[in-house]
């Protein structure tokens, strides 16, 4: 591509309304333009990157035996009512009413549509297994679309759906997709990690998320450095600690006049934060619940919600707290409640001795607290906290480390939830109508573009992994109109690289070197070659890898061997 | 592709609810499945064909210098209000309200969005010309979606938009796109015709439609067999005939007791239909209008609406007719009106002598009518009829023939309508802000698939033009499980063809020859090769072109030379 015939528009200034680096750089590089809240136009430059990602996704899905198809964006309410998701999906489902007052939605995902296709097209176990996928626009009406294409409302998703007569077959395809995703993200040149994930509202028996690792990632991931264990912190189990130590201190009331947090109390008392206990007041199905976690731990809301009676829990109001504990927030604790309450202790708390809790009295905490002696054993002991770095790995091998990630892929063993709800059956080998087991497998194609930038950038701009770059190499011409020889040499090199199969651009825009190089660095082309009068005289080209600090002077042979890896 | 690993599902019976052959065959071949009214899922087979069309469109658009980008499907009302199209587009515009009660639409076309992109990205004549295109889903909320993907509500369109400082530049790009479309439809192997078209509501200075020729086409096309003239009948000019002949008959009233049509009157009187005149009663801006066309001609509504005061004309009601002509429909004419009326005569009628019209009296016509003598000259003489076969070509070369077509492409020289409405300017060479001239260029990608079938089918199914076929060739194996040698030979041939670059399928489904061949014919694969035990023994393959009546026995060399054209 000759850049004089392309459309590039870069900006030096960081846009004021872009909060994260990928959004800033995508706007500065002119990859996307905002059309409305959460709606982005992909410029020619942005689309080149998007298409590279799509191509890798398609190649690997095809290689894995999945078959591409395409379902409409607009789907009828009736289908979504068959599974109850017309209501359950909530306001993220963009609803549409047509001229005949019929209801539709702009599809955020296509379990219903693909199951409808399947039940019309497939009848027998002989036609299975099958894995059908599409790469299409999806829509989620996010309440607060932000971060550019990272959390846009309209986005490109690859979604695949597999159908199986038996669970074993589903497990085999699940593994196949897991391996396929691993190949996709490896081929894209991304540092990523697959982690076990919560199956959440979609349900099903197994689920893994694929995360691009980046410090700015919204998700926290836990993994063992000595084994393959990896899980989203939402899910990662905090294993039970050793047995509780014996009491060595007496219960005592301590003055904490303004100390309302565990940190402040520990500092005042001169003790480790790990000796304090945080009391979190909740309201569940059966009323007031006090959840206890160690002062240095954080409550895990997803784990809490899995406990009996807490599926739809909320934080208790101050009135509820005063009624049950007779105290103000900041001084709460499990001892001396005014009314019966349920006490749920994290495993770590249940194993503590001589600990500190709020006294249920303003300005006071209790220290030297011990289970059994100073208060009854907790009503329930459970894993209700996030793991922290250094926790033992749940698989018993090594300790956990933490990383942050951006979710770009998700594989689910769905089971029969959709096929049962939609009365979708096939005949098995015995001639019996059975509901097929399903898997679903998503990749956030447009999000990958942003995630790759979060992971790969520097002060000058984007540093694309080569497989995602808009072009692999660019040949820059200094003063093309002023020197025909230079222009011809650049043209010849450009053509030679193209013919050798290298996706190459020719920067023949005639910019001065400063702005030209700044553009090329900003848009992140992996290899830059400069053809200049001086170099031509010396028989050399100036070569610089985007990731390198310096440029090198290479003769023709060395240059070609570098670029074409031959 | 091994068909055992693919998903094919064909049907023998013609679906009852499919009215046209392409819809019937697409359903029977399992290319699409209806999800809801006007919404179709593309099966893996259908998608293969769609992708082939898309690929040709993209290649030729890129070759022509257009640059691909992608705009969101969901677009904000504010943009559409800038051009007034939020209202003007009418109920075909699918409107959407999001969770924040903001209004959007599912884009049927993207003049507004691309102009918005352009005005943010382009500032100077130096960046022009530019032609931006996308291949995306569009939506038109058709009141009566029908004919499958031929007139679906959600469909795939390639839409391109070019921007120019000067009109000459626009004309150059218009021509470039015209030539590109010609290449696209030629490469797709379709019989097509480009015709001058009415610029209609979109406005602009020039417009051509590209039609796939098919007897079932909704549009009538007129073209000269001896020159390049071609136009939609909506637009094609019926040239003025020679001078009017002199009167030879006397005016006389004739009994036509039940003869209300020109055909019946001509039959009764024993004269040529061309001697009769049809009177069409209309109601325009200034009241009653009588439009006169020759008995064998048809009024052209688009031409009529271009006359002064008739932009929004309608047919007159019977009450209006009785009030102005004092007669019932069937016996109307221009002589003896009860109230002042405007008479618009088609050019052919104005040149007639001794003609027959209704007498404005039930049961009677007037014969031997002559202008000037029996009634005043018409208030207006204009071209208000459809051309018919045999009319002189408007370019003066030869006579017109008619054909029917399916519109699959449209190029428009839009001018400055959108850039002015949206206050989009660039600086010209003199540093002055000017509104760029625009062109827009659409191709109905998904409709091409149906149109190709309308044009290319036989009693056994689809006969794809090779460039659109899901596969170029299929290797059929008879009894693959029963004979390892046959299976191995088929496999070897399949691999050899693939490696030679021929998009080949292997039919290893193990069907009996009858159903297997019926499938292959129905889905229209251009080349079929059968590997059988008997053939293998004789050293031959059974080859049949989809378009051929018979199969041939070819040895390996002859087969390869036929398939690979070497």
UniProtKB/TrEMBL annotation, chains A, B:
**Keyword set for this entry?**
Aminoacyl-tRNA synthetase, ATP-binding, Cytoplasm, Ligase, Nucleotide-binding, Protein biosynthesis
* Catalytically driven reaction(s): tRNA(Pro) + L-proline + ATP = L-prolyl-tRNA(Pro) + AMP + diphosphate
The record, for InterPro entries, names: aa-tRNA-synt_IIb, aa-tRNA-synth_II, aa-tRNA-synth_II/BPL/LPL, Anticodon-bd, Anticodon-bd_dom_sf, Pro-tRNA-ligase_IIa, Pro-tRNA-synth_IIa_bac-type, Pro-tRNA-Synthase_IIa_type1
Q: Which Gene3D superfamilies match?
A: Anticodon-binding domain, Bira Bifunctional Protein, Domain 2, YbaK/aminoacyl-tRNA synthetase-associated domain
- Domain named Aminoacyl-transfer RNA synthetases class-II family profile is located at 33-465
Q: What does this protein do?
A: Catalyzes the attachment of proline to tRNA(Pro) in a two-step reaction: proline is first activated by ATP to form Pro-AMP and then transferred to the acceptor end of tRNA(Pro). As ProRS can inadvertently accommodate and process non-cognate amino acids such as alanine and cysteine, to avoid such errors it has two additional distinct editing activities against alanine. One activity is designated as 'pretransfer' editing and involves the tRNA(Pro)-independent hydrolysis of activated Ala-AMP.
Concerning NCBIfam families, the annotation shows:
PRK09194.1, proS_fam_II
Q: Output this protein's name.
A: Proline--tRNA ligase
